[in-house]
Amino acid sequence: MTIGHTSYEYPPGDPVLVEDPYGGSPVWIVTRHDDVAAVVTDSRFVMNTQSLPEGGDWYLDMLVTLGVSKDLAPYLAGNLVHLDPPDHTRLRRLVTRAFSLRRIAALRPRVQATTDRLVDALPGHAVDGAVDLIEHFAYPLPVTIICELLGVPERDRPLWHVWSRDCTSTDPKVLNAMLAEMSAHMLGLIKRHQDDPADDLLTALIQAHDEDSDRLTDTELITMVLTLMVAGHETTAHLIGNSTAALLTHPEQLALLRADPALVPGAVQELLRLYGPATAAQLRYATEDITVGGATIRRGDRVQAVLASANRDPAHYPSPDTLDVTRAPRTPHLAYSRGSHYCLGATLANQEAEIALTALFTRFPDLAPAIPPERLPWKPHPLTRQLVRLPLVLGEPAGEASASTHVTTPGG
């Protein structure tokens, strides 16, 4: 199994206690599908150390220690991923009401139009005969769609393209600058949407309330938008990049998709299973002694659920390392996790990937890698599989009409 840019041997088996490569106490590594599913759906495993009796927000403290401003760090620490009930339940409920399937379905024509525009522009970005798909297609597509979804004015979108890159930086100076600029900008945008409501997600988030008329505060709104920006562009961008690289190295599978576009939605799920950007879930903490896969995980112990290993468990997926775009597995993959922390933007990411892959491979029938697969640069991050660049040779484009080929999906 590959995690990030490095290969690790994690044959599905009993949970294993290992030393934390980043220092600190040991971590339980959970790899089998059933065990991973049990961990990510068990509320006794929490995301935030504040939920433990000994308390303290370890993640917030770490951000400040690394140099993120105390005033700005809460925008990162308040991310839904790092929250537990009741805060997580309240915020998730409010956001889910605004982030509706109807709203995502209504975006489909804009996703198609944006995809076609970016595909049309790819030949103009060629340098020495190669185009970087990550920079010129996989990244700008989801950022543009997130801006459309939120109702960000066209004139402000170049800023968001910059912030979408900076928000995943490990440099505290970059993070501080991004958070300061974005939070100030968002306060102005919130005020404009309060004064002049529109049919967009930001207005829906501003107006969202529960049965107790509880609403998102300005800080929660900014944090939620930042969460959507990170999850919305990072997940989708690297799903598109990873999937494109995988299909180009499996030409027989690509030929099946070109022959039958109706296979694309299922193929995206198979690509997520094998090449999803998130290879491991966020660390969780046991609130009591819990038995997983025959091992006793003690209260306070840390647990790392390896999604990529679970998705290749031979007990659930015959020939688990084989890419098969016609696969109809009995067991859904865990690439988006499961339970209360199931990816909020999964439906949108699926939609964007289906449209992007169809348009790309239809418009450029001779698309090919510009460098051998073993030379592709991967980000050195142990919890994700993300390409730094994906240089491709486009070949001669097909006619303009074919770039707008639509994939029909249930309800799409």
Overall geometric form = globular
Low-confidence region ranges:
1-10, 401-412
- Number of contiguous helices: 16
What is the radius of gyration computed over CA atoms, rounded to a whole number of angstroms?
Answer: 21 Å
Keywords, separated by commas or semicolons:
412 residues, Cytochrome p450, five-stranded mixed sheet, 16 helices, disordered N terminus, disordered C terminus
Describe the structure.
By secondary structure, this protein is an alpha+beta fold. It has a single domain (2-404), classed as Cytochrome p450, CATH 1.10.630. It has 16 helices and twelve strands. The protein has helices at residues 33-41, 58-66, 73-77, 87-98, 101-106, 108-121, 133-138, 140-150, 157-166, 172-195, 201-207, 218-248, 251-259, 264-275, 307-310, 346-363; strands at 2-3, 6-7, 16-18, 27-30, 45-46, 131-132, 284-286, 290-292, 295-297, 302-305, 368-369, 391-393. The strands form four sheets. A five-stranded mixed β-sheet has the order 3-4-10-7-5, with helices on one face. Helix 12 (218-248) packs across helix 14. The longest helix is centred in the middle third of the chain and has 31 residues, at 218-248. The radius of gyration is 21 Å and the shape is globular. The two termini are 34 Å apart.
Offer a quick outline of the entry.
This protein is α+β, with helices and mostly antiparallel strands and 412 residues long. The chain has 16 helices and 12 strands. The protein has helices at 33-41, 58-66, 73-77, 87-98, 101-106, 108-121, 133-138, 140-150, 157-166, 172-195, 201-207, 218-248, 251-259, 264-275, 307-310, 346-363, and strands at 2-3, 6-7, 16-18, 27-30, 45-46, 131-132, 284-286, 290-292, 295-297, 302-305, 368-369, 391-393.
